[in-house]
Amino acid sequence: MRFFPETIYWRLVSPILVVGLLLVALISLIVPTMTEQTATRAALLHGTELLLHTRDRLENSIQSGTTKSASEILAELPEYSVSKADFLTIQAKDFNSGTNIVPDSFQREAWSTLTGNSNDVHSELNVIGSRYIYRIATKDRVLGSLLEIRLDVTRNFQGNSFPTWALIAGVLAGILMLLLCAHLGARALADPLQTLALAFRSLSEKGDLSAGSHVSPTSAQEIRRLTKAFQLFREREKDRHDLTDEIKRLAFFDPLTGLANRTRFLHHLKHHLDETREMTISPMVVLFDIDRYRDINDTFGHEAGDAVLRVLADRLRTLDAAHVRAARYGEDTFALLCLIEWGQSEDERMKLVERVRSLLSHRIHYDHQSIQLTACFGLSWAPDHGSHADALITAAHIALDKAKCQGRDSAMSYSRELANEAQNRITIVQDLKSALNQRRLQPFFQPQFDIASGRLIGAEALIRWPRFDGTFVPPGVFIPVAEQAQLITPIGQFMIDQVCASAAQWQAQGVKVPRLAINISALHFAEENVADAVKQAIARHEIPAELLEIEITESAMSQRIETVMDSLSELQKLGVEIALDDFGTGYSSLSYLQQLPLNRLKIDQSFIKEMSSSRSAQIVKTIIGLGRSMNLSVLAEGIENEAQADHLLELGCREGQGYHFAKPMPPDEFLAFIQDEQMRDADSQADLVRQIKSVSPHMSAVNGR
Ligand code: C2E
Ligand code: MG
Ligand code: MG
Q1: Residue 446 burial (CB count, 10 A)
Q2: Which residues contact 328 (CB under 8 A, 6 or more apart)?
């Protein structure tokens, strides 16, 4: 068991305290006994001397005849008067007869002890009440009587306590002095050490860098060194702290916008999901993606792109901070975490989207440019769409993907159907990859005709993905998925190669191959140089560029217009024709149309289908007029009956494609189709020659010559 704390202070002070206390106890026990013995011895010596001196004088007075009593002799001794003493003489006869004096036990004992040894003394200390009386006896050598002296030595004994207390006081004072020195020494040592220890602790536990700043080095060299070492450590620790703060900032915040990053957002989401599990709060995740952010970067430069993100982040900060937390989730993707009451309707939840839309609606001005933003939104909320952060994020992503498919400025909430769609998309992507690798995809060809003459003028190559049961996965299903999954470029490359290979093969068989149109997705232009890819394929298969046509959709025009335009111009220079597919369904502005290197406009089949309505007919008429005014060929897609063909002819459309003429067909069938067409052409030409001959027989004679 420890009585004192295990500190340097008590280590230094406690031994002095313990030793001091022991010393005092020892002194108070031993010193009184020792002084008592000394006093007794001194009294005995003094009394014996007094007694023997008196005896000598008494003996002399007896021998000289001037008999004096012992008391008288004693009184004559001025040097002994300091001791208060009674003298008593008892004759031998008194002992024997017992007439005058009755001897007490001391006297009797002295009488018997001194008989025969009259030079000796007999003594005894008596305590009577509070008094100390020393009794010493001897025998005189003349009369043989007992001489007794009684000395009152009380004063000696009372005086004895004084040295004891003086000693104790001295020792105590010494100890106190020692204690004071030890205390001061220990404080000088322990205080800085303690401050250092506390500073170290608060530095390591709380990271409090201000702790220990007041540690003053004492005169002790070791402590001075320790303090200096600590100050150095504190400075290093401060640097480390600053670095850690910076690392934390980079780890949890987006350096460009200062918003929380994805890690911090997920952390918050998990935290709120845990916290609100028992409450009536339903955390909602909104992911939104700026529409065509790449175009902003490409058109205005990356600095403008960064500025746009910063302005948007500032605007998002104005959202109600108590209920909405904003984060930058990806390049141009932002995430909002919103705490909403349970059971709120979807419309109620969409109000947040409306608020963000209103923030986006103000144009952003950068370097004399004015940029208008829109975004697509995906929403998910707990517990309906998941009770874990990962599930909610995945759900919001699925909703966002769907919203993006619907076009700019769309918003979607997660639903089971969306999840199924997403799952289907994943399956399609996997299957499509293996179909591509195993070259199970193939082009079908749909012939295109001059409507008036019915002459074959070309064909559109359309991709076909056969299932194992012989049916086909419709391109309308897998092409959008391929575009999302970055599979559209390999598909485009595959089609360019296959179409060129077929053309080369047919040419080698001596067939006059018509123009073959290949559909190229807008994203393909963004991912690789399409002109180079076509050039290489043409060179590889040794076919004339004039045999090819590239079909692009209007949506290609809205994305990366410069890249697309450069690529198309290059192709056109080679002799490849360019057709604008599905014309009328997109948003291409007339100014773009004017700049584009085009050869043909393809009227979208939806207008042909609806041509019985005057509105669609009017649109078709307008497109035909536009094509004519721009010196472009106009081809109508999806002609399914003769009435449509006639109507188109009436409106001035000369080229057509559709089930009315021919459906898309596999390459070998198409080869047979071309051969038939060519034979028909040859036959009709022969017929024509025959007719001409029959009408003017002399002509043949002229020709035959
Ligand atoms: P598109 O380029 O407009 O192709 C015309 C679509 O209309 C084809 O559908 C064709 O089969 C269909 N069609 C032709 N005539 C008629 C008709 O009289 N009635 C009806 N109802 N439909 C007709 P398909 O083959 O299903 O292709 C759909 C879309 O998929 C194409 O539209 C094109 O945008 C895309 N696509 C097809 N093949 C490729 C390809 O190799 N690459 C790319 N990037 N897209 C392709
Ligand atoms: Mg097409
Ligand atoms: Mg089309």
Answers
A1: 20
A2: 254, 256, 257, 259, 260, 261, 262, 309, 313, 334, 335
Nearest atom within ligand 1 for CA of residue 462: 38
- Report which of residues 160 and 381 the model is more confident about: 381
Verify whether ligand 1 is closer than 6 Å to residue 521 (CB atom): yes
Q: How far apart, in whole angstroms, are the C-alpha atoms of residue 409 and residue 262? A: 23
Using a CB cutoff of 5 Å, list residues around ligand 2, an ion: 519, 551, 581
Q: What is the pLDDT of residue 701?
A: 41
Give the type of residue at 132.
Y
pLDDT in tens, 155-183: 766 655 666 677 778 878 888 888 888 88
**pLDDT confidence of residue 668:** 96
CB of 94 within 6 A of ligand 1: the answer is no
In 375-419, where do the E strands start and end?
375-381, 411-413
Whose C-alpha lies nearest to ligand 1, atom 45? 519
Q: How far is the CA of 453 from the centre of ligand 1 (A)?
A: 24
Residue 174 CA to residue 164 CA, distance in Å, equals 15
Ligand 1 pocket member 474 (CB < 6 A): yes
pLDDT tier at 79 (50, 70, 90 boundaries)?
low
Peptide bond before residue 383 is cis, with ω within 30 degrees of 0: yes
Crossing angle of the two packed helices 667-695 and 697-704, in degrees rounded to 10: 110
Give, for ligand 1, the residue of 500, 635, 637 to mutate: max count of ligand atoms closer than 8 Å to Cβ. Answer: 637
Q: Measured from the CA of 518, which atom of ligand 1 is nearest? A: 41
Q: How far is the CA of 533 from the centre of ligand 2 (A)?
A: 19
Ordered DSSP codes for 497-522: HHHHHHHHHHHHTT--PPEEEEE--H
Q: Is the CB of 566 under 6 A from ligand 1?
A: no
Q: Is the dihedral of CA 393, 398, 399, 405 positive or negative?
A: positive
Q: Cα(252) to centroid of ligand 1, in Å?
A: 48
- Sign of the four-CA dihedral 247, 253, 255, 258: negative
* SS3 call for 248: helix
Give the integer Cα–Cα distance in Å for 240 and 676.
Answer: 83
Which residue minimizes the CA distance to atom 30 of ligand 1? 475
Q: Is the CB of 475 under 6 A from ligand 1?
A: yes
Torsion of CA 165, 168, 173, 175, to 10 degrees: -170
Give the whole-angstrom CA distance, residue 636 versus residue 621: 11
- pTM of the complete model beyond 0.85: no
Pick the atom of ligand 1 nearest to 475's CA.
30
What's the half-sphere exposure (Cβ side, CA atoms, 13 Å) at 233? 15
Distances (CA, A) of 436 to 237, 522, 533: 58, 20, 18
- Neighbouring residues of 123: CB distance < 8 A, sequence distance ≥ 6: 44, 47, 48, 134, 135, 136, 137
- Whether 640 lines ligand 1, by a CB cut-off of 6 Å, is yes
CB-based contacts of 9, cutoff 8 Å, min separation 6: 183, 186, 187, 189, 190
What DSSP designation does 166 have? H
Tokens of 379: 């929403």
- Cβ within 8 Å of residue 59, ≥6 positions away: 140, 141, 142
Phi, psi of 325 (to 5 degrees): -120, 130
